[in-house]
Predict the 3D structure of the following.
Amino acid sequence: MKFVIIFVALFSLAYAAPTDPAVEIVELKSEVEPERYSYSLKTSDGTEKQEEGTLLNVGAEDEHISARGSFSFVADDGQTYTVNYIADENGFQPQGAHLPVLPAA
């Protein structure tokens, strides 16, 4: 399972990299350990991403990664949008002022 943590961390860094060749990485920090990882990224176009993840219930049948992070970007309308999220055994749970919210039951 430690391989999975390393794989997820490296995948996250690769996913976080800018796809526009004109955009440059201004700041990149990453830390990968056997049971946790973290990274943060800032690019020249104003995009920022950060995430930290932890391996929970190590060695148990329900071993899983719990991740928490956020990303922000400048949209075509010039506004900066931010999404905060948790990704764990309950799925991906994003929150942001621009995201729709389900009505209370």
Remarks:
- The mean pLDDT is 85.
